[in-house]
Here is the input.
Amino acid sequence: MLYSMMRMGVALALALGLAAQSPAAEPPAAPGAAAPAPAAPTLTIEQPAAAPEAKPETPAAAAAWPPGILMDGLGAVGARKPLDDIGLLIYGWAEGGVTGRLSGGQNVLAARVFDANKPNNLRLQQLKLTIERPIDKTKTFDLGGRTDFIYGTDAKFIHALGLTDHTVNEPTQVDIEQLYVQGFVGKGTPDGQGLDITFGKWVTTHGAEVIDAPGNMLYSRSLLFNYAIPFTHTGVRGNYTFNDQASAYVAVVRGWDNWNDSNDSATFMAGGTLSTKEEAAPGVKRASLTVNVITGPEQKDNTRDYRTVADVTGTYHWTEKLTQIVNFDYGTEQHGAGASASHWYGVAHYVNYTFSDQVSGTWRVEWFADPDGVRIGTANTNYYENTFGVTITPMPKHPVFKNLMVRPEVRWDFADEPALGGRFNQLTAGFDIIFKF
Here is the structure.
């Protein structure tokens, strides 16, 4: 079943890509294209255009690639114009991957979440479909929204409480990753100054990494992504863009990964992004700093004990090709894991270099401390990981296969206690294949 779904997803994408080579209308720029997105495609791929504004630039993954193959496929059969008329975009990707253990403990990959549960297990991790109407911040008023459907082994880990979370024992599942509407009121300026309101379910603004596979520089996720921060929120968020160098937001949500709240109290969020006027390349800010804070009670039927996380991400583009990112998280929870106050904290450091339009390399090194065992489960333990990976785009100029990415990596996890399957260290190698459509 797993392999059949993977073949079907890739076959569908290829079929649409072949259709896209026939004469068809050019893919429309996302509404608001007059104001370039903060992350330009010169570094590799970027985050989808409607990703939360507070997310930092991630050079290897950024990706507001203009949705192309699927939209062009619709154009080839005469079904695209109504979508263009209302600014609606439909796009997605398929991701499959495998991780092998080279050394380490038992028949699990300890402290790993997204890229693997068991070693040597080929998985369809994400078959993703996004339907969105991005808001146009160059207007004085606009409405938009977004829905993200995801199928695969990754869906199991991102379910929000009360939404598609009833089949937790199935390895391959379906999830509604995002479901929100947006409204914007602004000054109609090219820098997008104004207020946008988001209501519904959206991915968190915390962290340097994201759920969406193409939005990351490496195949495997960091320990901070897996254990330090939430995945999604449900509620209302107001974000004000002052100019193309500064924005700030506040939000009231139902907590961490909740569609239905586990208690009767709200959780509060605030944060913002600052960036330099100077650019390392057209549309790529030389430096940016993003800060996020979330606080509120998260324990079931408990409105007294608060969980708080502060998240800071700094990005610096030394050159058009060389990028450095540092992500820091500090979390605390009252009466977590039986302690009067539990804590967790860590830092992840990334260096990315684009060698050519076909190859970029990324090195990530991080440390994560869970002294009370509230996040991973083993108290008084420091976890470390060192990962080197390469992103390969074999045919960057091909009209269809420019959307194909292969990401091999080697990763070494180690700890100061035998917390990795009864061992102190674990060495793995893996790769994934992504095809965007």
The longest strand covers residues 89-103. Residues 1-54, 56-65 have pLDDT under 50 and may be disordered. The two ends are 22 Å apart (CA to CA). Residues 406 and 433 are 5 Å apart (CA to CA).
